[in-house]
C-alpha cells in the first residue's frame, strides 16, 4: 500500500544529520523528483528526470535512494537514546553526484574493485577496459554502474518497504562482453536491516562482481573521523596486494599484522601500521565462511559513543574494508560538510579483487557468468544499539 507522505517526511526534519525521534509513520514509501540530468552533448535525447525514493520502516528508520546510480543518499538510524542520525556520506543534490566523487552510496559494477592492467581474457579472447585507476580498471571503468540511470520501482513487501532498480548494461559497454540485465533491490526491513539484493543474467559469457559502496559513519555523516569505531571481521586471512592494490594471488593469515580484526579493536589502533599510500585500511578479507547461499556474518562495527552497531552479513566470499583513506576534504557533502580522510568506512562484500586474472582462486571466487546462470548476491546491513 502506497501512502502519500510529503508532509510527514517534512515533519521528520530529514535534512539535518541528527533528528529527534519522529512520530510513527512507517512502513511506507514515496517517490519524489530529485533533479534533472543535463542534456547529453549529442543532442539526441532530452534531459532525464531523476527520482528519489524514500523508504520508512515501522521503527521510522529512513532510507533515501535515487535512480541515478541506484545511489543511497541518506540512511537515518537511531542511537542508544533513540536519537536519529544520517549515517551515510553523500550529497544533498544531484549536482554533487554528477560532480565527481569516490562512489558514495553507489554500487560498483559490472566488476567491482580493480582489474589489473585494465584487461582480462575470457574463453580465449582478450578484452580491454578503460584504465580509470591507471594502469588498472576500478569499479567498472570510466562510466560504471554508479553513473547510469536505472529504472526504479518501490513496493511494500511483507518485511518492509523496498525499491528495485533495473538496467541492462549493453553488450560491449565499458569493454565487457554480453548484455547484462541487472537488478538491485534495497529493502528496509522492520527488523532494522538494509538488505541489498543483486541479480544479473547475461546473453554471452562475461564477468560480474557487484559491491555496495556506502561510506558509513555510525556517529553521523558529519561527525568527523571513524577512528574510535570498533571493528571485528570474521576473517583469519586476507589477500595481500602490491603498492597499486592488485592482489599478489596469495592468501595469507592476518595474525601478527595490523589487518587482524578477528577480535574487536578500534580502527585507530593499528591505522598507522596498516601502511599504504595514503595510509589506512584498504584490503580484501577472505571471509572464514566462504561463499554461502544465505548471508552470514562478515563484520561487526560499534560506535561506542552513540551505541550504534552495524553488522554486515553476506553471501560473498570476500570483504573489502576501506577507511576512506583517499577522502581529502574536496567533496562538500550534505549540509556543506567537507568529508576528510577517515570520515567514513566502507564494508563491501564481493568476490576477491582481480579474480578474473587470478586462476588459482577459481574455486573460491569465480566472477565468470554464463548465459543461463544467474548472478546472485545478498548483503545485509543490520542496525542495532549496543546493550
Ligand atoms: C577501494 C579503494 C578506492 C575506493 C574508491 C574502494 O572500494 O578499495 O581503493 O579508492 O573504493 O572510492
UniProtKB/TrEMBL annotation:
> Could you name the Gene Ontology cellular component terms for this entry?
cytoplasm
User: Could you tell me the EC number(s) of this protein?
Assistant: 5.1.3.3
Q: What is this enzyme's catalytic activity, as reactions?
A: alpha-D-glucose = beta-D-glucose
**Entry-linked InterPro entries:** Aldose_1-epimerase (IPR015443), Aldose_1/G6P_1-epimerase (IPR008183), Gal_mutarotase_sf_dom (IPR011013), Galactose_mutarotase-like (IPR047215), GH-type_carb-bd (IPR014718)
**Molecular function per GO:** aldose 1-epimerase activity; carbohydrate binding
- The active site lies at 213 (proton donor), 348 (proton acceptor)
GO BP annotation list:
galactose catabolic process via UDP-galactose, Leloir pathway; glucose metabolic process
Q: How does this polypeptide assemble, per the annotation?
A: Monomer.
What family is this protein classified in? Belongs to the aldose epimerase family.
Q: What name appears for this protein in its UniProt entry?
A: Aldose 1-epimerase
Amino acid at each position: 500500500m502506497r501512502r502519500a507522505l510529503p508532509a510527514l517526511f517534512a515533519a521528520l526534519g530529514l535534512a539535518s544529520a541528527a533528528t529527534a525521534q519522529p512520530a510513527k509513520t512507517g512502513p511506507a514509501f514515496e517517490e519524489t523528483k530529485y533533479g534533472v540530468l543535463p542534456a547529453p552533448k549529442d543532442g539526441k535525447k532530452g534531459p532525464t528526470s531523476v527520482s528519489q525514493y524514500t523508504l520508512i520502516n515501522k521503527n521510522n528508520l529512513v532510507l533515501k535512494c535515487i535512480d541515478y546510480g541506484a545511489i543511497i543518499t541518506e540512511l537515518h538510524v537511531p542511537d542508544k537514546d533513540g536519537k536519529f542520525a544520517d549515517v551515510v556520506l553523500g550529497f544533498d543534490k544531484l549536482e554533487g553526484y554528477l560532480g565527481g566523487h569516490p562512489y558514495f552510496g553507489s554500487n560498483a559494477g559490472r566488476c567491482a574493485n580493480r582489474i589489473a592492467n585494465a584487461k582480462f581474457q575470457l574463453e580465449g579472447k582478450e578484452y580491454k577496459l578503460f584504465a580509470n585507476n591507471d594502469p588498472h580498471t576500478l569499479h567498472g571503468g570510466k562510466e560504471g554502474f554508479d553513473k547510469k540511470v536505472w529504472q526504479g520501482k518501490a513496493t511494500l513487501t511483507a518485511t518492509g518497504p523496498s525499491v528495485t532498480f533495473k538496467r541492462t548494461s549493453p553488450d560491449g559497454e565499458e569493454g565487457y562482453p554480453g548484455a547484462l540485465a541487472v537488478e538491485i533491490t534495497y529493502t528496509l526491513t522492520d527488523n532494522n536491516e538494509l538488505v541489498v539484493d543483486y541479480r544479473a543474467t547475461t546473453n554471452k559469457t562475461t564477468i560480474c562482481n557487484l559491491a555496495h559502496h556506502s561510506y558509513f559513519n555510525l556517529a553521523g555523516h558529519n561527525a568527523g573521523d571513524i577512528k574510535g569505531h570498533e571493528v571485528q571481521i570474521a576473517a583469519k586471512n586476507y589477500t595481500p596486494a602490491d603498492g597499486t592494490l592488485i592482489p599478489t594471488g596469495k592468501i595469507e593469515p592476518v595474525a601478527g599484522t595490523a589487518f587482524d580484526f578477528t577480535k574487536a579493536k578500534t580502527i585507530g589502533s593499528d591505522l598507522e601500521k596498516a601502511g599504504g599510500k595514503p595510509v589506512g585500511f584498504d584490503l580484501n578479507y577472505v571471509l572464514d565462511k566462504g561463499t554461502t547461499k544465505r548471508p552470514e556474518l562478515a563484520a561487526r562495527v560499534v560506535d561506542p559513543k552513540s551505541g550504534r552497531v552495524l553488522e554486515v552479513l553476506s553471501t560473498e566470499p570476500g570483504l573489502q574494508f576501506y577507511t576512506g583513506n583517499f577522502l581529502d576534504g574536496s567533496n562538500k557533502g550534505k549540509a556543506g560538510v567537507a568529508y576528510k580522510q577517515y570520515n567514513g568506512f566502507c564494508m563491501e562484500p564481493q568476490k576477491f579483487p582481480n579474480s578474473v586474472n587470478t586462476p588459482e582462486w577459481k574455486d573460491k571466487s569465480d566472477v565468470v557468468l554464463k548465459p543461463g546462470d544467474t548472478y546472485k548476491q545478498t548483503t545485509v546491513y543490520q542496525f542495532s544499539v549496543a546493550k
